[in-house]
Amino acid sequence: MNKDIVALEGMEFYAFHGFYEEEREKGNHFVVDVALTTSFEKAAETDELSGTVNYEELHALVKAEMEISTKLLERVAGRIIEKCFEQFPTVTEVKVAVAKKNPPIDAPIAQSKITMIRVRK
């Protein structure tokens, strides 16, 4: 089994996620990383995009999920993972990290971050 990885790292969004209502009203800056495990065998042989994951489609998927206001970053990441498995049938594993810049904590913290890794069932 091949274990090739395609990733988009450092995708930046202004979105309305947070446990507190004020966070969902004001919004904040977020950074998302997504890595998909698949096989590049077909793409390596044919030089065709159909043999891999299209970056533009992946970015559009993440952007759409980031536009849905959510209390928990874990839920945002979970939806991104679900959609990746739906949209990209050759993907066997998805890793998603979502970071919130300057979280509302009374301390100097650059960002809070969650990471989820799921394997296709």
TrEMBL record:
It is an enzyme of class 4 (lyase). GO terms for biological process: folic acid biosynthetic process; tetrahydrofolate biosynthetic process. The keyword Transmembrane helix does not apply. Its EC number is 4.1.2.25. Keywords: Folate biosynthesis, Lyase. InterPro entries: Dihydroneopterin_aldolase, FolB_dom, GTP-CH-I_C/QueF. One of its GO terms (cellular component) is cytoplasm. Residues 6-118 form the Dihydroneopterin aldolase/epimerase domain. GO terms for molecular function: dihydroneopterin aldolase activity. Pathway: Cofactor biosynthesis; tetrahydrofolate biosynthesis; 2-amino-4-hydroxy-6-hydroxymethyl-7,8-dihydropteridine diphosphate from 7,8-dihydroneopterin triphosphate: step 3/4. It catalyses: 7,8-dihydroneopterin = 6-hydroxymethyl-7,8-dihydropterin + glycolaldehyde. Pfam families: FolB. Catalyzes the conversion of 7,8-dihydroneopterin to 6-hydroxymethyl-7,8-dihydropterin. NCBIfam families: folB, folB_dom. Belongs to the DHNA family. This is 7,8-dihydroneopterin aldolase. It comes from Roseivirga spongicola.
